[in-house]
Amino acid sequence: MTQKIRPRHPEKVKNPVNPIKKKPDWIRSKLINSKEFFTTKTVINRSNLVTVCQEANCPNITECWSKRHATFMIMGDTCTRACAFCDVKTGKPEKLDPFEDIKIANAVSKLNLRHVVITSVDRDDLPDGGSKHFKKVVETTRKKNPNTTIEVLTPDFLRKGNSYKKLLEADLDVFNHNIETVPRLYLKVRPGARYFASLELLKNAKKDNTKLFTKSGIMVGLGEEFDEILQVMDDLRSANVDFITIGQYLQPSVKHHPLERYYHPDEFKELKQIAKSKGFLLVSSSPLTRSSYHADEDFAKLQKKRLNIN
Asked: In order of start, what are the domains of the chain with their CATH numbers?
């Protein structure tokens, strides 16, 4: 009797497993369970809003929320890209919420924010990358909260032409777009983006509105070389970026891009001094620095520095 031979199926390719390195003593987020923290949490949850603080598992969430500072993430909680460093989920996003602008504006009012940061997931599925929706949220927020300064942390609007200009028509105070890492690592860390496209976006934002403060951030610990960080600084200054943030990459899970090493606080201080010498108006550089960490206080410093220069 002839034995039947079962067809062999190729083995499934498993996701690479990158063990998470133990955190050093200097990386300790503050755990604060204050009344203000729960007030912020309640307002956000009852408004059915998304924050990058929660979606990206930010280590500073309790500190920031205790100060009633939150970074609102619009256009849903699902990103169309899969950056290797990011903990925001990837997939097919839902339709835009037509009432999101009102929800954000009301939440800013209830929290009595003097400065608000509004960011978003990448929405490559939309013809304009979501710029019109972004603008709508900013304008409604401004109308209801005329004394609140507004900072946006935008996607790159890659391959969307000049759609980003629609957002620049809104009354903004800070335009932020993170460069994230050095160009050599883009294909591994940020495969859906292009380094020079991000630089061009920042350059054009400042060119189109010279009154805007422009801002960008980079993570360290992904495998970059020291000289490469300095080159990014030079590139950002060439794009007339005012404010740079430098923070430690913290690997979200074993399936994310591996953490190569933790930078010592002294190294962050050195990077800060170098960035200052290159002409940035403001530099925030520390292990727990994030794009919107202390954003309200930093904006006040930016205004003061500009006044002193003029």
From this structure: 35-309 (3.20.20.70)
